Fold each of these.
Amino acid sequence: MAQTPSPMGAAAARGLLRAMFDAALQAALPAHSLPRHLPPVPRGRTVVIGAGKAAASMAQCLERHWPAPLQGLVVTRYGHAIPCDRIEVIEAAHPVPDAAGQRAAERLLAMVQGLGPDDLVICLLSGGGSALLALPLPGVTLADKQALGRALLASGATIGEINTVRRHLSAIKGGRLAAACAPARVVNLVISDVPGDAAVDIASGPTVPDPTSCADALAILRRYRIDTPPAVLRLLEEATIAESLPPGDPRLPAIETHWIAAPQQALEAAAEVGRRAGLAVHILGDALEGEARSMGRILAAIAQQVARRAQPFTPPCVLLSGGESTVQVRGSGRGGRNVELLLALTLALQGDPHIYTLAADTDGVDGIEPIAGALAGPDTLARAEALGHRAADALDRNDAHTFFEALGDSLVTGPTLTNVNDFRAILVTG
């Protein structure tokens, strides 16, 4: 792994990658675009509800720009609350739900009872809302949902598959919260953290119709061989109370959905930083999905083709991508999907002297720890080996956080108060 100097120094390369990530975060903050999506003030009451890692920052922004009385309640992840004057903010657990999330969901449902046709419900949704709104159907316990959530997260299932199961075991998701709002009008203001920006997958779609069925949920549990409690299997097989509300269901009120921020918007902001630095920037996609290790190896192969063959792009350049990878948990280490992908990518590059990388979650939490992601460069493997850390061993243990932390290469932002999913940047210097 002998190194040769690249046209751009390591400090400058890493600084540029971090600047692009920071620009992506700024573009995804509610203050950037939420105000222009606010609906007209209704003749009746305005009730604000919401869930997600960005719910508190969205609520604060809405309060500052809403010209009339309102009341409301939103739930966000522990550590992500910020002060609001008229909207109550509750914290709960993520990614595995807890009793606080269950109580918050019960209160949200109660808050929208008894509304009339002149009333307006503004629903603020962002990534993380699925775990934060934990209200099991009768016959399903919170412990059941916790166990299923852990198993699905460790199985390698996609976020769309996980949310399909969640919707059919919930008393609030899959359009049920919207039905409780009827006949009031519902306006969803959404920050997307899912590939393809599917509204039904943001917080598992509490205020939008659901095109999936109990049969879909059963197929997912069987596909990933999830140990499923008998009571859950009965509910899904009977397909009565567990069926969600499909498009066109007469129980649903009038619903509008507006996208406040999305992965593509964040990638475009990052791309502008790269272009101002004089580099060509190529967005590979905002919805890339797959197993993290496989994705890391694929991205490494693309970067090396650019570096060695000037195909399909000519260096120096930046390759950006978003989306959401998955991890099959085999070890007991400290990790997350972004650092797992980055470690696999770094191993595949084998110290290529022309390639620097960053992978991070835009909510500031990759996995379950307050570490957003990490950076890597040509000297990463050599520095690690000098400290007694072997990248392949760390990958086998799902221990990428420990690996990058030992090098001082972890990326720590604190709560970002937004969430547009994964951000990946590859700088090919020459």
Amino acid sequence: MPLHIKVLGPGCEACDWVEQQAIAALEVLAEENPDLEATIQHITDYAEITQYPILFTPGLVINEKLVCAGRIPRVEEVVAWLRQALDGTGGA
């Protein structure tokens, strides 16, 4: 099952950090699963961001589920959320 990751935010430094954390987490998972398919999108359009239940950016969405908002998650957290998404158990 492919992973669809979205970083929500206006393009600030915090948003960029969240994107880097997601990339690092994907690299960890790719070592375990070389066939892993994933896409990362950076959503900066306010109208699109408000489609998710988010009060503060940056936000992180995995397979259309908001898993983190208003802070920069640790790589380990993102890895756990990605594993949950791959297992079909949802997110945080």
